[in-house]
Amino acid sequence: MTDGLTTYELADGIATITLDDGKVNALSPEMLAAIGGRLDRAEADEAVVVLTGRERTFSAGFDLRSDDWPTMLTAGARTAERMLTFPRPIVVACNGNALAMGAFLLLSADHRVGARGDYKIGLNEVAIGLTLPYFGIALARHRLTRPAFDRCAVTGVILDPDEACAAGFLDAVVAPEEVPGTAREAADRLAGIDMNAHHATKLRIRADALAGLADGIERIANPERGV
């Protein structure tokens, strides 16, 4: 099933959501809405999720051409919140590049498999003149190693996949052709855990990050506090 920006396939309790805008999978309000709809479908199907992108690119981040940044920022933060609280595991099969909001989606998943190669992963906001939003800071603090959190957030350094794995963006790095199968194996394995315990535990251990996300969303609505 396709909506023009994403596809959805359900097989044996695993829902594969593929992002494909034909370019770099820019996370426009429309793309983020499409992801939300697919997650709703996966929840109704009681499925473990594999979220993936197109050839060589998971996502290059927010659509910089958007003329409605508050809506897009809020949608991005809400998508991260949805992933962090999803009642079943979410595995990301990162085909290659994952930058800015694309990297934040990595930080919001339960397990992340990346492709080894000449790919770019990181939080490049400050490098392109953007101050890291508070909701992004909460995600980075929660998931990255302490030294990587400071370095990645403050300098905008771009990492290769192996460096990104050491920093906390990824959990495994494999050959590009092995990414789909490795992610599917992880999803099959996670499908065997107790989902009630999984959901309750993720809400407990992510409570601080979720509070930071909620604060970041509130700041977008009230920019006088600083977004």
Explained architecture:
There is one protein chain. With 227 residues, the protein is of the alpha/beta class. It has one domain (6-225): 2-enoyl-CoA Hydratase, Chain A, domain 1 (Alpha-Beta Complex). 46% of the residues lie in helices and 18% in strands. The chain is built from nine helices and ten strands. It has helices at residues 29-44, 69-84, 101-108, 134-143, 146-155, 161-167, 179-190, 195-205, 207-221, and strands at residues 6-11, 14-19, 48-52, 57-59, 90-94, 97-99, 111-115, 121-122, 158-159, 172-174. It has a six-stranded mixed sheet with strand order 1-2-3-5-7-10, sandwiched between helices. Strands 4-6-8-9 form a four-stranded mixed sheet. Helix 4 packs antiparallel against helix 5 and helix 4 runs antiparallel to helix 9. The mean pLDDT is 97.
- The arrangement of helices and strands along the chain is EEHEEHEEHEEHHEHEHHH
Count of discrete structural domains: 1
Supply the number of helical segments: 9
Helix content: 40-55%
Which strands sit side by side, in order, in the main sheet?
1-2-3-5-7-10
Decide which structural class fits the backbone: alpha/beta
Quick one: how many beta strands? Answer: 10
Under the CATH scheme, the architecture is Alpha-Beta Complex
User: How is the CATH topology named?
Assistant: 2-enoyl-CoA Hydratase, Chain A, domain 1
- Major sheet: size, sense and barrel closure? 6 strands, mixed
Stretches where pLDDT is under 50 for at least 5 consecutive residues are none
Radius of gyration: 16 Å
- The CATH superfamily appears as 2-enoyl-CoA Hydratase, Chain A, domain 1
Mean pLDDT: 97
